[in-house]
Design goal:
- The complex is a heterodimer of chains A (561) and B (322).
- In chain A, a hairpin with a 3-residue loop joins strand 8 and strand 9.
- Chain A is of the alpha+beta class and 561 residues long.
- The longest helix of chain A is centred in the N-terminal third of the chain and has 22 residues.
- Chain B is mostly helical and 322 residues long.
- Chain B has 15 helices and no strands.
- In chain B, helix 13 runs antiparallel to helix 14 and helix 14 packs across helix 15.
- Classes of the chains: A alpha+beta (561), B mainly alpha (322).
Chain lengths: 561, 322
């Protein structure tokens, strides 16, 4: 028995020693410690990259910078290889599958053009004109575009790609595109049903163009034939995707390239690592060079490390609270909605849920959206600034009798944390809630059931324009019922949004009218625009991000190690 | 014997078909419209109807089930992944070898280390070797696999940087998942072996052998182990059923692209064809392996073989008399 105790003690000592070795020497700090990452790293360079910024090397060059501008201003050498960790497997290389959100496929295929800060910048499209009445767009392609198979891309391929995009992915242009036709080998014409609205041009450029011949000859799900600067050379499902720089890339004039279409690395290895802790470890032990999706707890380590740069950029998603305005719900009472909005502190959510990594929203859209009025940031009251006393006043004007409101939220840890905090904040003013956590795969179905929830917490995207965020929320075009996303059934709202989203009516004055309507009726409270972080090696001189804030290894610039 | 084999074979086929019907039915009644999951909330009613028709999910349940069974068992077509747009069968074929290798090596390591440890503990009953093995088994059976895996990653990948923590690039990628998966198993098999050997240590034939002056080594290896290890080998054989379906946690932790990760990703994205395909393959693999284990009893244990023969002879006699 005595020996047995000794053995047990020995085992415990061994376990403790192993645990000690495993955890000693770490540089990480707790997630609550102060970090200055967001102030240092979120700065984004505009079109003109200045020498001073280049010297600090801690800048986001963005995809709006042309290849020539980068070559002139940023220290850059051609790198042979970069190993980059991504969260998701590309899984499907089909150009008409949903490629926009897959980091691995950003820049692999190419669209007609990019919309950068509201401006259309040609990619495959050399030039375009829009008729005065806004109903016809004539476009012209470069006549020397070739894919990796050597096929010359013509206007007929553009029409084919548009038709395929509509058929397979339902890219959503049929609502406003009447006719899409080739008018010559390299020219095409698009006829719109109504004058072109803001945001619709954005949509027109969001689908990939491939050769019809290549598409019929190859199974592009696994054997893609892109026009971009890289070609696929190796793919192991769920593990590795390797791209190699094309020697025969069609666009040799760097002045006509946006940063994301550059190829500053010969070989890009995308490793699929779904677990964030694993990505952090792989970065630390040198298995990979760069990564996205680093948790808040690990940020201080990378911020202080000499081997990495940490970049934080505003996410295109914002945390929103949507009240159900259906007449059968308690939240159809505007005063109850106002009480709820006043009871919620955006600052508290930013600090508690995101560890301070982000900014509070003062509008449905974050302040970087095109068309956003910077003065809105300084409003002290208009956008339901946290005020529990005011919340109680509004609550007193309702018939609310202590019933439990249902907060619908998907099971992501961030969103459920936000739901718990909102639950507590509402409890403080006397509003009771219960949280209904739902599987992300079916939450949109639950959301479409107006009897299933009162408050919905979700992440909503703002792509480019302020009006897009309002339109996306308010329009009935995106619902299967005759009202907006939160069952707000007001024909006046539909008319307003349809009028003001037209290019001619998209004036700051009209935006103010629409915003006031939105706020007066307490239709949605956008709370936080979080930062998303990219960790890159210290031999990076400029980070290129795609429209979806994805790190673009080929477009970024590097120095010697 | 042949009759028994046929009976077991029929039972195995029944189990596989039942598993297929069960998983199809469960997935059919799971809440959520696949068309809405694929297209998102902005899809129009026409688009949704179009996708439902393409997927064949607008047909009655029995028609869908019949089509699924026909495609799976007659045409060997498990369908196409909704999110990958690739054949589920192809996806499985790509991943099964990796997962099988991981599970197989893990079990081999478990057996190679665990069985000798158990024998050693039993033959040194109540001595320090026995207590050492018991303690080891207790510790590693108590701690969860994922915790051991994380500890190994931190120690071998992060601190020492001698083994990779993710992927399948080389043989090194297999070391940590195999070690992590094997440790708990080693403890379990060591304990089981120990108790099996202890059961025969005091058997009459062992005492007789010793009384006759047979060398202790010969007593252990020729008399004790062949009898004691029959249940142990059965246990090891059964554990091979975990080769395909038992590595999900390890695959997730080590970002190892095998069947387990394929299945867990499919569950997260509600990719029904992949979920169904994985479940059927795991069920079929398990049922077939169980069949092989059952059949091998007859060869490993003469008593069971004699029982089969006896049963066959009795039935043969009755038939002759009739």
């Amino acid at each position: 028995m005595k020996n047995f105790r000794k053995i047990i003690s020995l085992c415990l000592v061994m376990c403790m020693i192993i645990a000690l070795f495993a955890s000693c020497g770490t540089k990480e700090k707790s997630g609550t410690e102060e970090t200055d990452v967001q102030t240092e790293d979120t700065e984004e360079i505009d079109e003109n990259v200045d020498e001073e910024n280049v010297a600090t090397k801690q800048k986001v060059i963005g995809s709006e910078v042309s290849g020539a501008a980068i070559a002139d201003t940023v220290t850059s050498v051609q790198r042979s290889v970069i190993n980059y960790a991504v969260v998701e497997d590309p899984a499907d290389f089909d150009p008409f599958a949903n490629t926009q959100t897959k980091e691995t496929l950003v820049g692999f295929y190419q669209p007609l053009a990019y919309v950068i800060k509201g401006e259309v910048v040609g990619c495959l499209m050399k030039d375009y004109t829009i008729s005065d009445d806004g109903l016809i767009m004539d476009g012209e392609l470069y006549d020397y575009i070739t894919d990796t198979d050597g096929n010359n891309i013509k206007a007929s391929d553009v029409v084919f790609s548009w038709e395929m995009g509509e058929e397979i992915t339902h890219i959503g242009t049929t609502g406003f595109v009447d006719k899409f036709e080739a008018t010559g080998d390299y020219t095409f014409r698009i006829t719109f049903k109504q004058p072109l609205a803001i945001g619709q041009m954005d949509k027109l450029t969001k689908w990939n163009v491939v050769s019809e011949k290549a598409y019929s000859e190859h199974d592009m799900h696994t054997d893609p034939v892109p026009t971009g600067p890289y070609k696929l050379t190796k793919y192991t499902s769920g593990y590795l995707t390797t791209y190699e720089k094309r020697d025969d890339y069609w666009q040799t004039d760097t002045s006509k390239l946006v940063a994301r279409d550059m190829a500053n690395v010969d070989v890009i290895n995308f490793y699929v690592i779904p677990e964030s802790a694993q990505r952090t470890i792989a970065l630390k032990n040198g298995s990979i060079d760069a990564s996205v999706g680093i948790t808040n707890e690990d940020l201080p380590f990378f911020d202080e490390s000499e081997d990495f740069w940490l970049f934080g950029v505003p996410d295109d998603l914002s945390l929103d609270l949507i009240p159900n305005c259906d007449e059968g719900r308690l939240t159809s009472d505007v005063n109850l909605r106002r009480a709820i909005f006043y009871a919620i502190s955006n600052e508290a959510i930013l600090e508690s849920v995101y560890g301070g990594n982000g900014s509070v929203n003062h509008d449905l859209a974050p302040n970087w959206a095109v068309g956003y009025n910077p003065d809105w940031d300084n409003e002290t009251d208009n956008y339901y600034t946290y005020d529990p006393e005011k919340a109680k006043e509004y609550l007193a004007e309702t018939s609310y009798n202590g019933e439990e409101l249902i907060i619908l939220v998907n099971n992501s840890p961030t969103l459920t944390n936000a739901a718990q905090l909102i639950n507590a904040l509402l409890e403080q003013v006397g509003i009771k809630t219960k949280i209904s956590v739902t599987d992300p795969a079916i939450i949109k179905e639950t959301y479409a059931d107006k009897t299933a929830w009162d408050l919905y917490i979700t992440m909503d995207a703002t792509n480019t324009y302020w009006i897009d965020a309002i339109n996306g929320f308010l329009t009935k075009d995106k619902t299967t019922w005759e009202g907006s996303g939160n069952f707000w059934m007001d024909p006046e709202a539909q008319e307003m949004i349809n009028t003001y989203k037209q290019v001619a009516n998209a004036t700051p004055e009209n935006f103010e009218i629409m915003r006031d309507y939105f706020i007066d009726n307490a239709l949605c409270k956008s709370m936080v625009n979080p930062l998303t972080y990219v960790v890159v090696p210290s031999w990076t001189s400029g980070v290129c991000l795609s429209m979806k804030k994805c790190f673009t290894p080929g477009g970024s610039t590097y120095t010697e190690e | 014997m042949l009759r028994y084999v046929l009976q077991r074979l029929l039972m195995t086929i029944f189990v596989i078909i039942a598993a297929a019907i069960l998983i199809f039915t469960v997935m059919y009644f799971v809440p959520g419209d696949p068309a809405k999951i694929i297209l998102g909330p902005e899809a129009t009613a026409a688009d949704l109807a179009d996708v439902r028709h393409q997927l064949g999910i607008d047909r009655p349940f029995l028609v869908q089930l019949g089509s699924f069974m026909y495609n799976t068992f007659i045409k060997f077509d498990m369908g196409t992944s909704w999110f990958r747009n690739t054949s589920v069968f192809g996806g499985m074929l790509e991943r099964i070898p990796r997962t099988f290798l991981l599970g197989f090596l893990s079990i081999v390591l478990t057996s190679l280390v665990g069985i000798p440890m158990g024998v050693n503990a039993a033959t040194h009953h109540r001595k320090w070797q026995d207590k050492g093995v018991i303690s080891f088994a207790m510790v590693f059976m108590s701690v969860p696999e994922f915790w051991v895996a994380l500890l190994f990653i931190i120690f071998f990948s992060l601190r020492l940087n001698i083994l990779p923590s993710f992927g399948i690039g080389s043989w090194k990628n297999y070391v940590l998942p195999i070690l992590s998966g094997a440790l708990a198993g080693i403890g379990g098999i060591a304990r089981y072996t120990r108790s099996c050997v202890l059961e025969v240590v005091h058997a009459d034939y062992i005492t007789t052998a010793r009384a006759k002056g047979v060398m202790e080594r010969k007593v252990i290896y020729q008399h004790m182990l062949p009898n004691a290890l029959i249940p142990v080998l059965t246990n090891v054989g059964t554990s091979f059923t975990r080769c395909i379906g038992g590595t999900i946690v390890m695959e997730k932790i080590f970002s190892f692209p095998g069947v387990g990760l394929y299945l867990s990703d499919a569950i997260a994205s509600r990719d029904y064809p992949v979920i169904r395909g994985c479940v059927i393959v795991i069920a079929a693999f398990t049922a077939i392996l169980m069949l092989l284990v059952d059949l091998s009893y007859g060869y490993v244990d003469p008593r069971i073989k004699a029982q089969y023969v006896k049963q066959s002879t009795k039935k043969g006699k009755i038939k002759n008399v009739a």
